[in-house]
Amino acid sequence: MTASEPNTPETGALRDQFALERYRYILQQIQAVNENSHRFLAIYQTLATTLVGAVLALFVGYRKWELSPDTARSGVIGLLALTTMVAAFTVTLIAVGVAAWLDYRNEECDITDEMVGPGFRKRPRPGNLLRWHETYVVLFIIFSVVLMWGLCGLLILPGIK
């Protein structure tokens, strides 16, 4: 079938079948993007907890391990820098997921506009940003990194003497 062929019942049915399959695929991708943000948060929480636990272990045990205070401070800063990198990577993955979700939702709206009728499915609006859970996940990650650095600067680093 080429673009120059007339629209026959067979080509119309084939087109509808293709649109339906594409719509199913888009819905699967939207679901996958939604699930991925939860996975990314779980990975961040696990790695951040482990790395901050290592910071606390270093703080508590550096004397017993006969490490110099400078080495212990460098280790603490290095572990927090690694935690910050994990956080930045997680935020990047979530932002890319949001962009993909927006793209898939717009494609979903294009298909439903054509196959069902204009306005069947409303397009996503940036004004709904405060209703998206990804917004709060990103804010949590940013807040936790700032809190870790703040507490480290106020309590951990001054305590390494």
Descriptive notes:
This protein is mainly α and 161 residues long. It is 79% helix and 0% strand. It is built from 3 helices and no strands. Helix 1 packs parallel to helix 3. The longest helix has 53 residues. It is rod-shaped. The termini are far apart. The mean pLDDT is 92.
Task: Write out key terms for the chains shown.
161 residues, mainly alpha, 3 helices
Helix content: over 70%
Low-confidence stretches: none
Given the C-alpha coordinates, what overall shape results? rod-shaped
What's the count of strands? 0
Count of separate DSSP helical elements: 3
The chain-level structural class is mainly alpha
Evaluate the radius of gyration.
25 Å
Strand coverage percent: under 5%
Q: What average pLDDT do the residues reach?
A: 92
Order of helices and strands: HHH
Note the gap between the termini: 78 Å
What profile does the largest beta sheet have? Answer: none
Provide a concise account of the structure shown.
The protein has 161 residues and is mainly alpha-helical. The protein is 79% helix and 0% strand.
Secondary-structure blueprint:
Elements: H1 9-61, H2 69-115, H3 133-159
